[in-house]
Every structure is written in structure tokens, then in C-alpha cells.
């Protein structure tokens, strides 16, 4: 596998994981409002899940910007 393929796979995995965490955060907030919990008490708060999702998206953005920079370097003489 080339480095570009690995970056692409990692980027897609992080993007998917961020949206899964976002969905879990929304569901947990709704359940918390009703007095229940999905992820357990004391593990992660809904806010922490949102922070982790944001961190993953920052890495996705960094990987995408790196790929864009490499493409631009290839095109310019």
C-alpha cells in the first residue's frame, strides 16, 4: 500500500468515527434528558464525545490539506 492509500483510509475512518460519535452524543443527550444513560455513568459525558469527534475532524482536515498541497506541488513546474 502506498502512503496516499493509507492516508485516504485513515481519513475516511476518522470521518466515519467522528460522525458516529456525534450521533452517539446526540442520543446520549436525549437519553440523559429522560433520565437514562447509554454509555454508562462516569465514562464519557456527551460533551467529551463531541470533543473527541471534533479532534478526529481536525485530523481529517489536516490529512486533506496535506493531500491538496501534494497535488498542487505535482501540478506546478
What fraction, in percent, of the residue positions are helical? Answer: over 70%
Task: Please count the beta strands (DSSP E, at least 2 residues each).
Answer: 0
Oligomeric state of the chains? Answer: single chain
Poorly predicted tracts of residues: none
Beta-strand proportion: under 5%
Number of domains: 1
Biggest sheet character = none
Mean pLDDT: 88
Total of DSSP H or I helical runs spanning 4+ residues: 2
Shape: elongated
What distance separates the N and C termini? 27 Å
Based on helices, strands and strand pairing, what is the structural class? mainly alpha
Radius of gyration: 17 Å
Give the helix/strand layout.
Layout: H1 3-33, H2 46-75
Helix pairs in contact: 1-2
Structural descriptors:
77 residues, mainly alpha, 2 helices, 0% strand, elongated
